[in-house]
């Protein structure tokens, strides 16, 4: 075997000297060598190991094999492997995949194990994982190990990788209320998330401006609350498609229905849900947050979340709870009377807590867990001990790292987003700022640090729609993806710059219109596509 392999090495080593391995995100442990093999689209196959728990028919892996065949060789249909004639010894003709436990029809969860081991050696290309989710991460890594000569020949170096994520929750938030994002935008984003090993799609479905979620219990919500009920809604079929598309890529869908604030678009569809604001002694004709003093509000929420909890199969729902504006509640005499009756004085945080606690009880009773924005914690709402608190405010009431310390010292699990608002743009390489954040860089015990389950990059939609979503997301979100996957010690900016620039070119090759990091060019001319 040394014969032809060595020949290739000698012939091409000079041509490709200095080409560093360019994985994104960087694996936990890797050994590479200058020894390399060729891969031919005509003969290469993904195969299940005979003793793998997953076998042909496994939806997650069957489809992943198809996808990665496309990623590596293009969508062209290649003839099956050549049956006659010996392959040159230096050619790798298959990647053998062994998954230890079945679970092809399951959903990924916060507890999913994503570890994998990938070996490219003289003997074989071999991918070992406890779960199909780990196998997906390994397939992505395999696809990034393959490199191309200018003539288009494919190579892969002798490599050994052992990999696993640093954090189990690595999310990306999209906001489909400020601007509607057509279904293909969401599905394409899920593809690129998988390239980055993100595993949670936080779907901020609805907000003040529009209500695109089509509810079967309350069809008036999207009929009256969406931008256009004919074209700007997500039907039950769309939602199913997003969930399955995400599942096949090992991505959870965390649906957010934010209340009691951020709900103006709910108003037209459910009469009496929102608080009428007063101007003096008269209703002003405008509306504020959800009305927390009416039984009908909670009856509605019970029915609505009963539906939502069956539509979205993930154990967790995101219940929002951020930025409740008290002005309207303060103006309303019925609310003032209720406050008096309850002995809340003029502390409207207590009224907010009253609402949120009742809602959390409703959602708990449906058998769901929940994630909430940090205000719920800041305002001392009594929540279940297994609640996950998402930190989004950079400085108030305290610096976000201090907030992480407070939340975890109270025993709650935390998610970090504050420094990762990708919708905020500045001149220059802002990815470096995202990259240098460490979610555990707060003062706290090991037990506290263990309560940080990860974080999310957020792309709020005020200035983003389908025209600019992709270049604004990629490769900037990749900085967050690597921070959440790779080892704590992987922080070298030059090393990251080289790999991220390369990854950006690879994204172009894969048809993703990712923006440039800085001055330069991609070796292959994909920028024109
Ligand atoms: C792969 O092999 C080539 C040719 O020997 C070498 O130039 C390159 O640095 C190797 N890449 C890695 C990641 O080891
Ligand atoms: C995954 O890797 C982590 C880190 O090495 C380890 O603690 C954990 O036990 C591994 N899980 C499995 C199922 O191999
Ligand atoms: C609201 O529900 C509570 C508890 O079930 C009940 O005591 C109260 O009378 C109800 N209020 C109205 C206005 O129906």
UniProtKB/TrEMBL annotation:
Could you tell me which residue ranges the Glycoside hydrolase family 20 catalytic domain spans? 167-487
Can you name this protein?
Beta-hexosaminidase
Please describe the quaternary structure of this protein.
Answer: There are 3 beta-hexosaminidase isozymes: isozyme A (hexosaminidase A) is a heterodimer composed of one subunit alpha and one subunit beta (chain A and B); isozyme B (hexosaminidase B) is a homodimer of two beta subunits (two chains A and B); isozyme S (hexosaminidase S) is a homodimer of two alpha subunits. The composition of the dimer (isozyme A versus isozyme S) has a significant effect on the substrate specificity of the alpha subunit active site.
Domain (Beta-hexosaminidase eukaryotic type N-terminal): residue spans on this chain = 23-145
Reaction(s) this enzyme catalyzes, per UniProt = N-acetyl-beta-D-6-sulfogalactosaminyl-(1->4)-alpha-L-iduronyl-(1->3)-N-acetyl-D-6-sulfogalactosamine + H2O = alpha-L-iduronyl-(1->3)-N-acetyl-D-6-sulfogalactosamine + N-acetyl-D-6-sulfogalactosamine; N-acetyl-beta-D-galactosaminyl-(1->4)-beta-D-3-sulfogalactosyl-(1->4)-beta-D-glucosyl-(1<->1')-ceramide + H2O = a beta-D-3-sulfogalactosyl-(1->4)-beta-D-glucosyl-(1<->1')-ceramide + N-acetyl-beta-D-galactosamine; beta-D-GalNAc-(1->4)-alpha-L-IdoA-(1->3)-beta-D-GalNAc-4-sulfate-(1->4)-alpha-L-IdoA-(1->3)-D-GalNAc-4-sulfate + H2O = alpha-L-IdoA-(1->3)-beta-D-GalNAc-4-sulfate-(1->4)-alpha-L-IdoA-(1->3)-D-GalNAc-4-sulfate + N-acetyl-D-galactosamine; a ganglioside GM2 (d18:1(4E)) + H2O = a ganglioside GM3 (d18:1(4E)) + N-acetyl-beta-D-galactosamine
Name the family the entry cites. Belongs to the glycosyl hydrolase 20 family.
Its EC top class is hydrolase
Q: Where is the active site?
A: 323
């Amino acid at each position: 075997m040394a014969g032809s392999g060595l020949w290739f090495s000698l012939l091409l080593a000079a041509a490709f000297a200095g080409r560093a391995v360019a994985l994104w995100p960087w694996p936990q442990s890797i050994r590479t060598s200058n020894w390399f093999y060729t891969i031919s689209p005509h003969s290469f196959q993904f195969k299940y190991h005979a003793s793998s728990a997953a076998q042909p028919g496994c939806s997650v892996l069957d489809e992943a094999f198809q996808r990665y065949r496309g990623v590596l060789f293009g969508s062209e249909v290649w003839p099956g492997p050549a049956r006659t004639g010996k392959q040159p010894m230096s050619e790798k003709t298959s990647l053998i995949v062994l998954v230890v436990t079945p679970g092809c029809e399951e959903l990924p969860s916060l507890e999913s194990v994503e570890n994998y081991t990938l070996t490219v050696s003289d003997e074989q290309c071999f991918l070992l994982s406890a779960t199909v989710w780990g196998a997906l991460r390994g397939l992505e890594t395999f696809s990034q190990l393959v490199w191309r000569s200018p003539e288009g020949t494919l190579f892969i170096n002798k490599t050994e990788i052992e990999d696993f994520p640093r954090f189990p929750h690595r999310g990306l938030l999209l906001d489909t209320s400020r601007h509607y994002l057509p279904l293909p935008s969401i599905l394409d984003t899920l593809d690129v998330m998988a390239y980055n090993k993100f595993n949670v799609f936080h779907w901020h479905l609805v907000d003040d401006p529009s209500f695109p979620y089509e509810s079967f219990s309350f069809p008036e919500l999207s009929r009256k609350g969406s931008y256009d009920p004919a074209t700007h809604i997500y039907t039950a079929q769309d939602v199913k498609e997003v969930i399955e598309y995400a599942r096949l890529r090992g991505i959870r869908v965390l649906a957010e229905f934010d209340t009691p604030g951020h709900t103006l678009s709910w108003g037209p569809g459910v009469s009496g849900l929102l608080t009428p604001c007063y101007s003096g002694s008269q209703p002003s004709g405008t509306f504020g947050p959800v009305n927390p003093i009416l039984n009908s509000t909670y009856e509605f929420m019970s029915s609505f979340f009963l539906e939502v909890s069956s539509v979205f199969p993930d154990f967790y729902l995101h219940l929002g709870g951020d930025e409740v504006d008290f002005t309207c509640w303060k103006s309303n005499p019925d609310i003032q009377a209720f406050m008096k009756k309850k002995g809340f004085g003029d502390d409207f945080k207590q009224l907010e807590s009253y609402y949120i606690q009742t809602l959390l009880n409703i959602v708990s009773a449906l058998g769901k867990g929940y994630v909430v924005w940090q205000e719920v914690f800041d305002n001392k709402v009594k929540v279940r001990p297994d609640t996950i608190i998402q930190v989004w405010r950079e400085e108030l009431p305290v610096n976000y790292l201090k907030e992480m310390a407070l939340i975890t010292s109270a025993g709650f699990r935390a998610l970090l987003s504050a420094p990762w608002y990708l919708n905020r743009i500045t001149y220059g390489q802002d990815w470096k700022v995202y990259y240098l954040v460490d979610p555990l860089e707060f003062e706290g015990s090991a037990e506290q640090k263990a309560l940080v389950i990860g974080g999310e990059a957020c792309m709020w939609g005020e200035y983003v729609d389908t025209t600019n979503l992709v270049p604004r997301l990629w490769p900037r979100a990749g900085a967050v993806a690597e921070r959440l996957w790779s080892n704590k010690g992987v922080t070298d900016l030059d090393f990251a710059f080289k790999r991220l620039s390369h990854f950006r070119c690879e994204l172009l090759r894969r048809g993703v219109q990712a923006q440039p990091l800085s001055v330069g060019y991609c070796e292959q001319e994909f920028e024109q596509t």
